[in-house]
């Protein structure tokens, strides 16, 4: 088959849907699912036939697509995740379905291009389109400025990282004479190190690793299927994939691999703690995405490509499953607050069971998928460094803790006094404006959505088969990693399993020991203020940080600690600060705004001041001096100065005449400045000539 | 060296088009002057075709003073192509004007001057070309005969005249020092002359091409002329003369002055100052034309980078950038012409009223930033590579910084265009502002905008082919 078909089919289908606009709204979800199904078939075919294609885009650089083992695994993962999400979304009505489906398909196509590109140029194209689509999708409900700002924040943050990739492309040309990803490791120093630094920067930004993690928190403002796709197999996975792909380069530099491994491990630990402190289901899942991608980044740093690819695929299945469940509850119950979602899993057994499968897998409970893949990553880390292993192990404990917490809250008995149904929506009859979030939905998950959830749940459960030695061998061969020792050590698996079960039990015991709380405040206010409930997520994810801080504070004082799982009063002042820091994602966004964004206008103002006062003043002074010199030279007579200087002096004298006549507008200033600049140029030429000649 | 007038066929065709247009125009009734536009357009198309033929022949020299090489060929093609686009832009606006035919003829003459600037291989030809590229431009700037147009023309003229005089002084000085004016002889003779005098001569000579290129320190006319002149003329003045000027600068840098110490440093400083100043000044502009004017200054800084670099990659980088810039800049101005209003706020809701136009605007503005896959992106990559290989790493870094900064003001324009329009547009409605009460936008500018945007993308995607 032709390699270009793989990204081409979803791209063309998506573009056609996006261009067709409102006319295609009715047919779009089904067409989107169909296109995604075709993409799955293409991805499988590509994984079997391993096509390749090249094209010359710029200069003499060959660009191309090729499907090798790693790409094959990734392409199938991406295609399947996209299919599952789009299948689920056939039951959703986000408004403007054609645009939505079209953007999702283009997004998928961009990710497929990214994972199959063999050179930096095509990779950059896919990378950029993916960033643009993420902006459009996160801000999809554009009538809410908060959501648009969330999209902008995601775009600007990942773009800031992307600059590293552009720089890396330049360094690659300088050092390796080409843009091929495979040739990067052989580049000359110092270009190799610079290219590695650029790629690492871009990958950490795209993957929302520390210190860029905050954009993922805001990215929740998009429709739930967007979160499900963006957090699983695309976007955040792209950074990790890139690091896995250029692992030889990281290893060749001698420092980048270590740096990447530590960045991944620390993100996994810090964001795992952040996830533990969230009071909102989607925020919890977002933080856990950062943490799990941290394991991928760690795998790239530890040269465990097969383990990383396995973790990526398994995590994609688990996380899209969890986000789809969260989205289903948001659509029917109108809330994402953990406190208000207490017992939600009991309403719809299939969604509840699917969520349980995903959460248990995320917790690392044997014999589920992430237990094995995380164990494989940890196995690869063990021989490298003991402190690194310790951090990673601690991170996997936090994963068990936050998964257990979410699972236990969602499966808890509903609080006494909580309303049985969703909060009433006074405007339920009116259709929402296009570009606004849809109204609450009375009916549950569509049949297609159920199929999708069941399929993903099977993936979350069944991918654990990779622990079996024959499967592990086949996977290692497929993803092209040299068989370096065993894929996953039994001892590691045993340790992980025991620890995960212990944490699960501890969380369960703690929750059980606590008295059942009163009905959570969000639902209690629900009837009085339907907007606040329904748009609560937008407010929190949206306008500004204070809102979320307010929500957290209100929750604590209002007796709404039911979902918190932590009681503030038990900790001292420092504990409270730490708790707030975790709840607000370590204040990363505030830090980024303060350090990177705020200073820019200040610098601009300072430059403007310098321009107004210093440069203009100097120009006027020089012009006056030039006039004076011209007058003096005129008196001294023609013999002293040669013709050139006379010409210049005459010109400047004429300028002086012009400068005294205000009615010529600004032309005098123009002339004076031009003349002064030319004199400066002449001085530069003279000075350089004098410096070079002697 | 040859003495065959047919070597100058493209130039002669443009000249013939201008003369024939003027003559025809003086015999035609006012409402039938449109025929002149067709004559001039055909002449430009013929010149394009002749360029295509000439590009196949080996490089050479015509009359000992006019180079026939890829630089001249590219300049011919780009100038003729962008002038053709500008004619389409200008035709609806000029219709019924008492001097309609003169507008077309002046455009052709200025375009001829720009081509001659690019081909000049002798200081005297350079001076003549400078005047030919400039004088019709002064008339064009004031063509509308309104107060702002007159001011624009006056400022453009004053700048051009002042710096032109300096340029003449430079030519005189260099001739006095070397005794020759042909580029190929200058290089050898200037070696023996006093370095300080040669440096002064160079700087004075530089003033002329820098004026036409709109680079520091001669950039002052650009914003005033772009804002004051009528919109199609602004598109012309900020595009066509620049092409010839940059080619002339490159030729000067590569042939006679390659060996002079400090010359490249000075050019690099000019490039750095131009891109920085243009981009910084564009930040707070609320007028689309003034914003585009400063953006063209910024672009001029980028285009000067390969001139200053002078490595093996420089010529392709420069020529490709010129083509990419011409297409993209004309496209952006075409949107302004089609919308018929200048304030950025007036573009609010453009995506709703005219989606194709808004898309063209997005492609052109993002193209000017250098976003893949547009043409300027490929050109910028080449420019950065050429700066890097010549050891001008700091300039490449500055270019990247400027590119990042430039995104800000382009987005200040794009964002309102893709937002919903205010409920009732203030002020009297014209053209696109109120389709109900005013005539539909002229198809010409609309088409030019879309065509230029498409060309920008195609050129970017096909960059490999064009450079091969």
TrEMBL record, chain A:
Keywords: Membrane, Transmembrane, Transmembrane helix. This is NADH-quinone oxidoreductase subunit L. It comes from the Bacteria. Residues 117-392 form the NADH:quinone oxidoreductase/Mrp antiporter transmembrane domain. Residues 524-540 have a biased composition (Basic and acidic residues). Residues 420-444, 515-563 are annotated as: Disordered. Its main location: membrane. One of its GO terms (molecular function) is NADH dehydrogenase (ubiquinone) activity. It is a multi-pass membrane protein. Residues 541-556 have a biased composition (Basic residues). GO terms for cellular component: endomembrane system; membrane. The chain crosses the membrane at residues 30-49, 69-88, 100-118, 124-142, 163-188, 194-216, 228-246, 252-277, 284-309, 321-341, 353-372, 384-404, 451-471, 491-509, 670-691. GO terms for biological process: ATP synthesis coupled electron transport; electron transport coupled proton transport. It is found in: Endomembrane system; Membrane.
Automatic annotation (TrEMBL), chain B:
One of its GO terms (cellular component) is plasma membrane. Its EC number is 7.1.1.-. The chain crosses the membrane at residues 12-29, 36-55, 75-94, 103-120, 126-144, 156-178, 190-211, 232-253, 265-284, 291-312, 318-339, 359-385, 391-411, 446-467. It is a multi-pass membrane protein. Keywords: Cell membrane, Membrane, NAD, Quinone, Translocase, Transmembrane, Transmembrane helix, Transport. GO terms for molecular function: NADH dehydrogenase (quinone) (non-electrogenic) activity; NADH dehydrogenase (ubiquinone) activity; quinone binding. InterPro entries: NADH-Q_OxRdtase_suN/2, ND/Mrp_TM. It is found in: Cell membrane; Endomembrane system; Membrane. It is an enzyme of class 7 (translocase). It catalyses: a quinone + NADH + 5 H(+)(in) = a quinol + NAD(+) + 4 H(+)(out). Residues 120-404 form the NADH:quinone oxidoreductase/Mrp antiporter transmembrane domain. GO terms for biological process: ATP synthesis coupled electron transport. NDH-1 is composed of 14 different subunits. Subunits NuoA, H, J, K, L, M, N constitute the membrane sector of the complex. NDH-1 shuttles electrons from NADH, via FMN and iron-sulfur (Fe-S) centers, to quinones in the respiratory chain. The immediate electron acceptor for the enzyme in this species is believed to be a menaquinone. Couples the redox reaction to proton translocation (for every two electrons transferred, four hydrogen ions are translocated across the cytoplasmic membrane), and thus conserves the redox energy in a proton gradient. Belongs to the complex I subunit 2 family. This is NADH-quinone oxidoreductase subunit N. It comes from Bailinhaonella thermotolerans. The lineage of its organism: Bacteria, Bacillati, Actinomycetota, Actinomycetes, Streptosporangiales.
